[in-house]
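Quick one, T. Sequence first:
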Amino acid sequence: MLKEELIPLIREFPDRSIQWLLETPDNVRCILLIVASELAEKIDYSRLKRINKTFISDDLQKHEADMIFSAPFSDKAEDNPKEIIIYILIEHQSSVDPEMAFRVLSYMVGIWETQRREWISNNVPMHQRKFRPILPVVFYTGNRDWDSPLDMRQLMELPDSFEQFLYQPNILFLNLKATEPNKLVEHDHPFGWILRLIQKEDVKSEEFEDTLRLVANHLEQMPPENRANWEKLMWFLLTLIYNRRERKERSELVKIIESNVSDRNRKEEIEQMGKTIAQELIEEGKLIGKELGKELGTITAKQDALIRLLKVRFGTASETLVEKIRSIKQVDQLDELFDRAIVAGKLDDVGI
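Structure tokens:
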């Protein structure tokens, strides 16, 4: 696997990892099996194609759709499959968006508007213009309970007699942390086992280790023809460990994975993966320090470098945390905190 492909996974793990995994059609299939198994079985994943689009609204604000795919869909009674759009909105933030139904609807309209513009640009005859149906999925990975219905009616003061005029998209919803664990692995899909481990990413060591053993065992059972996805899932697994677990746990967790791998070459490959991830995280820290610490030796530059590193590594740097960092005036102390932040498994390990 090319290093250029892995760097975004390692350095931007919280935001990019799920998207990276869903670039593999069989992992898309797993998501759909969990939320709508009957529909999922009617999609031809061998012809699944990723669509990259940027939608520009009237106020010229760009909206990047999370993951958009096209694929043939056919009911058993139909001879000719119909082309559909699968739209997966990945919501990582733990804050619940009460306007999610409108957000999804606006993206759906954006997809159709893009299709309409293509018709006009290509002079497609009116009788051939058929909008492709969209299967919308919201994939929520946050920890907070999602207590807001995905319902346009909740966003309006709607008279009863007006309900017939309301367009209400049926949105499939996967709340990862709240889903019953057995539901994720009901179809025994390798990606489902990865999702089960993500559920446990913040639990105590013993429980995480038990789940990791189950996941590693199921990944080992993947057939040789699925080699590419095995490698991808393994990269994710190790990057999760280096991003979510404490430093003192990591070597033991990697050993658990290796103990479930029978092939010696694969063991060596996993060992090399771990070294690559660790080194890339260190290089990331050095790069941030170099970019923001050009005025070497100044307190402000070192404070800026530390704050930036915390945002990149852990996705946050609260106002309280920033204030604490700004109050530190000793260069040696800032350097020590920066070094800790490079290798820390979680924010609390930095010790600010």
